[in-house]
Input
Amino acid sequence: MECEELRVLLHRYVDGELPPALRREVEAHTERCAECRQIVRQEQGWQQAIRRAGTYYAAPDLVRQRIASMTRSAARPVTAPRWQGWAMAASLLLAVALSSGVTAYVVAPPSGESVAEEVTASHVRSLMADHLTDVASSDQHTVKPWFHGKLDFAPPVEDLAADGYPLIGGRLDYLEHRAVAALVYRHAQHPINLFIFPSGGADSAPRASVDNGYNILHWTAGGMAFWAVSDLNAAELADFARLLRARG
Output
């Protein structure tokens, strides 16, 4: 196993999602590679910190009150016909199921928000581990071919140096349960991570969001999904996206 292969599998390894044979390959590699061993330890520390600071949600008061009320009703002596008793039990089960659905809706963010959180986490990890690039180059004709054979798609690579957003390299990353391309740009001293992977959706204009102080832009074009994230201000990140889309 090579270093770049391990980094694609890193999240699944730390989450315990790899099959035993592949997990042993990762562990054998980290035994002989100090750099990858450090990256794995940092990822494990990051995951533990998130778990310690995890947020837990209680069911809404209205749902709790309705369940309690129905539970009290179900506990009363049954004088009604048998079918009504079964109906009451069915209603109670339905209420519990609905409350679970409400709770799941409250806790689980829409899929777009989930990807935005993954994008932000990957951006932060690349800065913490000092691992912005696997291939460091400002030449798009060097960066684009580097992805050949490493991904099952060819990401578009543009250099915007003349517009103040030079390309500084690329790397493999992992989002949405798949390997993706991460292109790295810079504006002044601010790095920009641009994640690219295939999308079955129609072309869409950029949509802005903010996660933990980082500005994010997401759009689709030419069968690809683009996610740009940076600590740049929103106007400069929007300018970056505009320039990039104009080249497409």
